Amino acid sequence: MKQKISFICTNCDHFLPQWLGCCPECKEWNTIEEKQASTHTTSHRRIVKMQDITTVDVLPTQRIVSGVKEWDRVMGDGIMPGAFMMLTGDPGIGKSTLLLQIAYQLSQQHNVLYFSSEESLEQIKLRAERLNCIGKKLLFSDQAHLDDIVSTCEEYKPSVVIIDSLQNCFMSQTQLLPGSIGQLKEAAFKLMRLAKDNKISIILTGHITKDGLMAGPKTLEHMVDAVFYLQGEDRWQTRVLRAVKNRFGTINELGFFEMNEQGLQEIPHINEHLLQEVTHSPGSVLISYIEGTRPLILELQALTITTKFGMPQRVVSGIDHTQVVLIAAILEKYLQVKLSAHDIFFKISGAFKIKGSSIDLGIALALLSSFFQKPLPEKTIILGEISLTGQIKPINYINLHINEAEKFSINNIVIAKNQKFDYTSCTTKRLGHVYELLSLFE
Prior knowledge:
The protein has helices spanning 69-75, 95-106, 121-130, 146-156, 181-198, 218-223, 270-275, 321-335, 360-372, 398-407; strands at residues 3-9, 15-16, 32-38, 84-89, 112-116, 138-141, 160-164, 201-206, 226-232, 238-246, 254-260, 263-266, 284-291, 294-306, 314-317, 342-348, 380-382, 385-386, 392-393, 412-416, 427-431. The chain is α/β, with parallel strands linked by helices and 442 residues long. It folds into 3 domains: 3-38; 69-267, 3-Layer(aba) Sandwich (Rossmann fold); 273-441, 2-Layer Sandwich (Ribosomal Protein S5, domain 2). The chain has a 9-stranded mixed beta sheet. The radius of gyration is 27 Å and the shape is globular.
């Protein structure tokens, strides 16, 4: 059979007629490989039977619940049977610790297999003893041969399989190195078919790049049903489990854990944790921000100071700096507050990264509070969007924000004039335009 030689990018699957050092589609270097394709189609074809979607039977599916509420929430109220998922994060952040604890909890009601390609069984036992996760129902192996892992899963028929990590698994029938782009794609495809054909939920751990993104080809992220990042907070021993892709739940959902001698312990009331270090001072305001399905009460901190150089500085962390610059420009336009002659330093307390227009009003009041060196009334939460014309607009899910604030005795709320919400015992201050912001500092 005549063969036609072509080239394909192993990162984005882009086809090329000739080899290039850099893929013109994804701009990655050294990802072009030779691929041989037949010039005519095979004769072994069959007609696929098409089906009316109304005739498809959908059986009720019960999710696999661990009992660890922070984990189950991020999964989408439990793991979906047959789900193919990836957990990634910095080295030493606690991925293996978290999965060992979850595997132990799941093994109380389900069959769970744990394959560790990075650690020996002796190392795993030492960690399990420290975490008090010793049990006969949870089965371990340090096997890294992918074909043997697949055969074992087909034989045992477990409910959940954990493979730590995908980058260290290998296949004997190929010459691909463990961790290479081709190996990751082929291994992921085999495991995906294992999950879907046998209704086995598979959780993989993966490495990340120096930019903090999941290592491997982008195709890998498309293959899996869900991608979760385990991230650390700089000051506390807090770990944040974040869903960035989830076909069976809400994306951007967060789960909070605290690292201690007993492993990762869930933090069910994160806002109580966040409010412990809130300061009542100029430049500090409270906002409520929804991440996933839960509102987080965060402190915005602003510092404005007359610039000593020709070009004012804009140092912003935790939020898009253009949003802060935009709000500063609106305030200068309508209130004649010369922020363009001031250095602006702005951050989100707790090292969170947030985005969205619902925090516009909070940014504006934090800047003005620092500029005038006057704090807002204590226990005040700011909820509103600001348009380019200076109008203050309502935000979505206002009742969710207010109900969460009331739990912590935050009894002053600054909102848009035409914001609609259910009855609350809080004192509300309604504003229609940025002109009215100055009244808060008189």
